[in-house]
Structure formats: C-alpha cells, structure tokens
Write a structure and sequence with these properties.
CATH topology: Four Helix Bundle (Hemerythrin (Met), subunit A)
Number of helices: 10
CATH class: Mainly Alpha
CATH superfamily: YgfB uncharacterised protein family PF03695
Radius of gyration: 17 Å
Largest sheet: none
Shape: globular
Number of domains: 1
CATH architecture: Up-down Bundle
Strand content: under 5%
Number of strands: 0
Order of helices and strands: HHHHHHHHHH
Structural class: mainly alpha
Distance between the termini: 12 Å
Length: 198
C-alpha cells in the first residue's frame, strides 16, 4: 500500500545527476543506464514481494560502484528509492505511467531505449519470478507480453511470429503503459481499495 509520507518524484536536475552517475566510469560497464533503471524500478514498484535494496542494487550495478564518499552513496540510494516510490504513486493514482523513452522499437530494436527499459523491467521480474507468476502463469504472461516482446530477451516461437509483423509489434509496444496499470491492479487492487476507504 502507498503510504502518506511525502516522497516526491525526482526533479529534472536529480534525474540528470542520477543518469550521469549511472553512466560514469565509477560504475561497472554493464550497469543499467537511467532508462534501464527506470524499468527495473517499475518492476520493483509492481512486484508483490518486497525486494531488499542490496539485492536490486546488485542487479542494477553488477558490482558496487566507486563512491567518492558515504554521502554520495546515500544520495544515489535515496534517488533510486524515490524513483521507485514516485513510480508506485503514479501507478496507484490510476494514471498511465510515463516512460522515460518513446514507446517504439524503431528500425533498430537493439538500439532502442524502449528495449533497454523493457530489459530492466524483466530483470526485476526475474528477481521474484515465482511471486509474479505462481499459479496464474498464463494470465500474467498475457499482461507481460508487450514488455517481454519489447525486451527481445526471449527465444520463443510465438514471439518470433509476432516479430514478423511490424505493425503488431508497434501496437503492442504502445500498450505497455496500459499493461503496467493492469499489472499493478492485479497485485495491488486490495491495497487501492483499502486506501480509498481510509
């Protein structure tokens, strides 16, 4: 459930600061960039299980960054946490989540920011795959399909057929914000109902 603690989204300057750090030479070369990190944080905001900071930071950074001070370490951790909370608040509000990239793979999917965002999201799903799917694997699979397709991470015959239809791929990518809203409702409808009653 989203609490009433004030935790605003990141300002433009804070986003730039976080993006700059994630692309600096003080992190592992395979560290997520800001768009990929946003995908990961979106999955963490939706996941039914709370995931410890140490665990998701390992997924994001690969190995611990070379912070210049404990102050910087705390600042980066705070920005990432606030990003996750702001995403959760946006989903809780019922509004379509605004992604930090266009909802298209274009003519070069591997270079598309949306692919990176979707890969970050799926990494978050994989951290608690059993909690995401459980006994409802088919239903959840349908909701995640647009994101899985955009990620390009799966060698699946049914997905390969979809890739052969550019217009369908484009249409499915456009559905990602709606899919995120549906996924959030699927796992947190009870939390929202309690919030409305409060």
């Amino acid at each position: 459930m989203i609490d009433n603690v004030q935790n605003p989204g990141l300002s433009s300057e804070e986003r730039k600061l976080l993006a700059s750090f994630l692309e600096s030479d003080r992190v592992h070369p395979e560290t997520f960039d800001f768009v990929q990190a946003h995908g990961l944080m979106t999955a963490l905001a939706i996941t039914p299980d709370e995931i410890a900071e140490d665990e998701w930071q390992e997924a994001l950074f690969v190995e611990p960054p070379q912070y210049v001070s404990e102050t910087e370490r705390g600042q980066i951790a705070e920005l990432l946490q606030r990003l996750k909370v702001s995403i959760a608040r946006e989903l809780y509000s019922g509004e379509a989540l605004k992604l930090p990239c266009s909802l298209t793979l274009g003519k070069r999917p591997d270079d598309a920011p949306l692919r990176g965002w979707a890969m970050g999201f799926m990494e978050g799903v994989h951290l608690r795959e059993e909690a995401w799917f459980g006994a409802e694997e088919e239903e959840l699979g349908e909701l995640i399909l647009p994101i899985a397709l955009a990620s390009g991470m799966f060698e699946d015959e049914s997905l390969e057929k979809l890739y052969q239809d550019p217009e369908l791929v484009k249409e499915l990518c456009q559905q990602i914000p709606e899919s995120l809203s549906d996924l959030y409702l699927y796992f947190h409808a009870q939390d929202q109902a309690q919030g409305e009653e409060a």
